Amino acid sequence: xxxxxxxxxNGSPPDEPEPDLLASLVPAKVADSLDGDExxxxxxxxxxxxxxxxxxxxxxxxxxxGSQLVKTPAASAATxxxxxxxxxxxxxxxxxxxxxxxxxxxxxxxxxxxxxxACQYTHVLPKDITWxxxxxxxxxxxxxxxxxxxxxxxxxxxxxxxxxxxxxxRNDEGIVLIDQNVCIGCRTCMAACPYESRYFNTEPMxxxxxxxxxxxxxxxxxxxxxxxGKCVLCAAxxxxxxxxxxxxxxxxxxxxxxxxxxxxxxxxxxxxVKLSQFxxxxxxxxxxxxxxxxxxxxxxxxxxxxxxxxx
Amino acid sequence: MSRMTTxxxxxxxxxxxxxxxxAAIRPMVQKPGRGYKLLVGVxxxxxxxxxxxxxxxxxxxxxxxxxxxxxxxxxxxxxxITIVGASYGGAVVSAVLRLxxxxxxxxxxxxxxATAVATVIVGGAAIIPSVGVPGRMxxxxxxxxxxxxxxxxxxxxxxxxxxxxxxxFLPVIPDLAVAKETMGDRAGKTRTTIxxxxxxxxxxxxxxxxxxxxxxxxxxxxIIPLAVSVHSVLGWAFANTSFxxxxxxxxxxxLFVIAxxxxxxxxxxxxxxxxxxxxxxxxxITERHFKSLGLLMLPFGAAYLYMExxxxxxxxxxxxxxxxxxxxQLFVGSYAxxxxxxxxxxxxxxxxxxxxxxxxxxxxxxxxxxxxxxTFWLNRFLMVAVPATYDxxxxxxGTYAWTWENIAITLGSVAAVPLILLLIFRVxxxxxxxxxENMEMESLAQEAEALMHAGNGNGNGYVQRExxxxxxxxxxxxxxxEEEDDFARGEEEE
Lengths: 311, 494
Prior knowledge:
heterodimer; A: alpha+beta; Alpha-Beta Plaits; 2 domains; two-stranded antiparallel ribbon; 13 helices; about 30% helix; about 15% strand; disordered N terminus; disordered C terminus; B: mainly alpha; Formate dehydrogenase/DMSO reductase fold; 20 helices
C-alpha cells in the first residue's frame, strides 16, 4: 500500500509540502533552482493545528528537555504519514529538517561589534560573556582583518564527547546546545572547544526581563550561574523564521544564516544566495578544519575587497 | 605452635617489645601539649576558612576564586592533582616494598599508608570546589557519559581511594589487638568501641593471619596498576580532552605518573619526619629509612627531568604557533620565574642533595623533600593555568588573578591532610607493631636458617631455628649446648 492509496482510504488528498522557513525570504528564481529531495518534500505533511497544539503541550511539559520542542514536529509527522514504515519515515522526515549553518563574509566585516552587543542584549548576558566575539586578527604581512567567532556548530563536537554528564547535545537541526539544568560546571567542554566559544557564567546574571518561556536549551535566558553557556544560534527564533540576533544586527550583511537542506543562505540585507555555490565561488573555509571537528560555519576570507561595489 | 599467634609466640615481657608497643600507642596516650593544641587549632581554622570560602563561591559565582573565561581551569585543578599525586607515593612505596620483601619497610609502612589515605580523601574532595554546581555531582553516577575522560577519572580515583583505604586498614586489624592489650585501662570507652567495630572479629588464629597475608599481597599487586591508572587518567583528562597546546601531549600520562611518584615519596618523607619528631619515634624510624626513601626519589627525579626535556624540546624546536607561544610564556614569559624555580628547586637541587653522600643525611633529605612538594604544586599549577589562559583564536594570554577565597581553599585543603593524619593516629597505632615483630621473627628465622645450613660448628643449627621461632633465641647467647640437651630430652619424653 503506497502513500496515495493510504490517502484515498482516509478520504483526504495528500497534504501540501510544508513551506520552508527560509523559502519566504528567498526570491522565486533562486528557490526554483533549489530542488531539494523531492520525495522527501512530498511526504512532508503540513504542520496541522493538532500537531501544533500537541507540540505546545509537549513544550510545556518538557521544560529543560527543550530538545523535544524541535523533535516534536518530526516525530509526529512520522507517526501520521507512514505507519507502515516508521523507520524509513523518520529518516526521510529528518532529512527535511533544516540543517542550520552560518557563513561569515569577512570581506565586509568592519569590526563594529554590533553583533556582540545584539547577542548580549537578546540573551541578557554580562559584558564579558561574548557568545559572538569579533577578534581583530593580523596577517603576517601586517594587515588586519576582523573575525567574528561564534559557536561553530561542529558536526563532531569535541565538547559533546567530553561532557561527563551529557549536558551538551546536538539536536536534529545540527545545533549544539547545553542543558543548563544538567551542566555541573566542570568546564571540561571549555578545555575541549578549540574555538574558545564556550563561556562559564562566573557571576550572578543581570536581572532578566520577563521571558515568554522558561529557560530551555534553545532559549537559555536567563543563564544559570556556575554553568557553561554558549551561542545557541538563537535556536528558538529560527523556528519563527527569524534570523539570529547577530545576523539581524549586522549592518554590513556579513552574517548569513544558511540551511543545508534547502541550500539557501540569507543575510540581514535581504541578500539570498544558493549556499553551496556561494561557498564554493568565494573559497569559503572552516576554522581549524584540520582538527576534524567538521564545523558548520564558513568563513569567506578577505577584508574590504568588495566594500564599495556592494552597498 | 602453629596455633599460636605471632603476638603470643613472642615473649611478652621483653622490654624491647614493651618499648615498641608503647611507642606505637604514644599518639593515643601522650597528653596533648601546647604545641599540639596550637597546631590542631591553626589547622582547624584553616579548614573552616576554606569551607567559608567554598560557600561564598557557590553563592557569588566562581569569579570570587579567580575563574574567568580567560582562565577556566586553574588553582583547584592543580591542588587536586598535587594532593592525589601525593597519595601515590605512600601507597606505591608501601606496596612495592612489601612485594620485594624489604624488611626495613616495617616501621614506615603505617605512616606511608596513612598519608596515602589522608591525601586521597582530601585530594578527592579538592576537586569539589572546582565544580560549578557541586550539588549535581551525583549525575556522575546517574547519567554518566562514558566517552568523557572525566568519568573514567572519577571511576579510577574512586577505585584507588577505596583500595588504598583497604590497603591501609587490613594491617591495622591485628595491631588493634596489640594496642588493646598494651593500652589496657588507658583506652577510653570511645576508643574501645571504635576498636571493636574496626577489629572485624579478629582473633589472631593462624587461618586469619594467613588470609590477611594473602590479601595484603593481592592488594599490594593491585594497588600499583591502580595508582598508575589514576595518574594516567588524570593526564588524559587533559591530553584526551583538549586541542590546547601542551595539554594535548602524548607524554602527559607518564609525566603525571612519574611526578606523582616523585612528589609522593617526598610527601612520605615529610610526614615521616614530622611524626617521628612529634612522637619520638627516633628508635624505629632511623636515618636508614630516610636515606632509602631519598635514594628512591632519585631515579624518579631524574626520569622527570628527562621527560621534561623530551616534552619541551620537540615543541620548542619546530615552533608550532600554539605550543611555541605556551613554551615561550614558560621559558622567558611572565611565568618564567616560577617555571625555573620549579626546575631548579623541584628537580635539580633535590637530586643533587640525595645523590651526594655528604648531604645524604636526615636533615638534608627532609629539606629536599620540602623543596619537592611545593614546587611540584607550582609545576601542576603552571601545567594547568598556562594552556588554559591561552586563547586559541588569536594566541593571546589571559590573566589569572588571585583572590583570598582561592588561597583559603588551597591552604585549607593542605591543612586537612595533617589534621586527618593526627586524627587517624588517635585511634590507630602509629607503628605497624605486628608487622615489625613479624619482620624481626623473619630475620631471626633467616639467621637461624643460615646457621642451620652452615652450622656453627656445633651441628645444632636446627635447634636454634626452632628456638628462634619460639622467640627465645638470642644471637650471641652462649648456652646452646645445654639448651640442646634440654630439647633432646624433651623430645624423648614425648
